[in-house]
């Protein structure tokens, strides 16, 4: 794979397909602005803009051809769910995608979120600040309006104030967010759930970073 830095912008673009058999997925030295880690594959012609994070420490991330990942977007694969993105997809600034499937020609607007196990069908879209929640399946061509929340399979769309319906839709998927994402016992109280989730999560992060180098604090660092 070859990723090129665009001077002065911090953006990067892939001029070679990095799918299996088409090149290395090792990030180049000196990568600035956009940050990648783990098993990441980026298709020909795709652009990763300044400040974007593509994190595959938990699971693979695949970005198709001619996609644009805009400033400060976060794309993250997980152990249970890889992040697989098709061709001609736009992920807007500050969007957040975790362990989801994104088909071709999908539009993800500024600040939108697509969570673990969700699937967005071809040419679907989620508008400014909208959410596609865990395990939700958005049909092709469907549109999630500004700030609204999609849950369930097939997707049901609610305004953000309809908390009870949103919560019920999330609970249909593996018992809720913590149960689905972290495998936490549904019957436990909230304190026990958070303790178990964070113990599991921090241990997993520590395992993946056990070869990291600890940089001593320099004099004058608080």
Short description:
This protein is an alpha/beta fold.
One letter per element, helices H and strands E, the order comes to EEEEEEEEEEEEEEEEEEEEHHH
Q: How much helicity do the residues have?
A: 10-25%
Q: With helices defined by DSSP (H or I, 4 residues minimum), what is the helix count? A: 3
CATH topology title of the largest domain: UDP N-Acetylglucosamine Acyltransferase, domain 1
Radius of gyration: 18 Å
The tally of strands reads 20
Q: How large a portion of the residues is in β-strands, by DSSP E?
A: 25-35%
Whole-Å distance between the termini?
A: 41 Å
Q: Please, how many domains?
A: 2
- Based on CA inertia axes, which overall geometry fits? globular
- What is the CATH superfamily of the largest domain? Hexapeptide repeat proteins
Nearest-integer average pLDDT: 82
What is the CATH first-level class name of the largest domain?
Mainly Beta
The helix-and-strand class reads alpha/beta
Q: How would a crystallographer describe the biggest sheet?
A: 12 strands, mixed
| Sequence stretches where pLDDT stays below 50 over 5 or more residues | 1-10, 19-33
CATH architecture of the largest domain: 3 Solenoid
């Amino acid at each position: 794979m070859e990723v090129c830095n665009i001077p002065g912008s911090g953006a990067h673009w892939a001029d070679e397909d990095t799918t299996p058999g088409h090149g290395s997925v090792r990030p180049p030295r000196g990568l600035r602005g956009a940050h990648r880690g783990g098993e990441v594959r980026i298709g020909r012609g795709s652009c990763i803009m300044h400040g974007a994070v593509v994190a595959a420490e938990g699971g693979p991330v695949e970005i198709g051809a001619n996609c644009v990942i805009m400033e400060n977007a976060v794309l993250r694969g997980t152990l249970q769910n890889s992040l697989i993105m098709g061709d001609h997809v736009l992920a807007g600034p500050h969007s957040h995608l975790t362990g989801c499937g994104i088909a071709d020609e999908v539009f993800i607007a500024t600040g939108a979120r697509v969570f673990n196990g969700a699937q967005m069908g071809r040419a679907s879209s989620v508008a400014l600040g909208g959410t596609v929640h865990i395990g939700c399946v958005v049909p092709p061509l469907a549109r999630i309006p500004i700030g609204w929340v999609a849950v369930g399979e097939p997707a049901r769309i609610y305004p953000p104030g309809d908390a009870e319906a949103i919560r019920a839709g999330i609970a249909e998927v593996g018992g809720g967010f913590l149960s689905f994402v972290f495998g936490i016992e549904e019957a436990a109280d909230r304190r026990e759930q958070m303790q178990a989730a964070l113990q599991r999560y921090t241990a997993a992060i520590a395992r993946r970073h056990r070869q990291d180098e600890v940089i001593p604090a320099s004099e004058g660092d608080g």
